[in-house]
């Protein structure tokens, strides 16, 4: 069979069938376009909350780091405060004040010689 012998019928039935096929293709095209628009809308709908979620996560992580730094600083300052409070309590005692002044400022009474011993110095 050669192609020269093939003849296409061009009657009303064939024309109607071709028109049905074109109509179905147009409907499918419209349906696919609608589905594409809906999918694009859904993608945009999920992108914005995801961006906000990631931004919130970064903020929480930076806050956790800052809290850790502040806790370390708090511990250092609380130790320093307790040392200062201990010193303030000790400075209420007259004998300690005398020892402190002699050791820190090298004060002495008339006729005294001071010899420094590092292990005996008050802090």
UniProtKB/TrEMBL annotation:
The chain crosses the membrane at residues 34-54. Signal peptide: none annotated. InterPro entries: DivIC, FtsL/DivIC. Keywords: Membrane, Transmembrane, Transmembrane helix. PANTHER family: CELL DIVISION PROTEIN DIVIC (PTHR40027:SF1). This is Septum formation initiator family protein. It comes from Streptococcus sciuri.
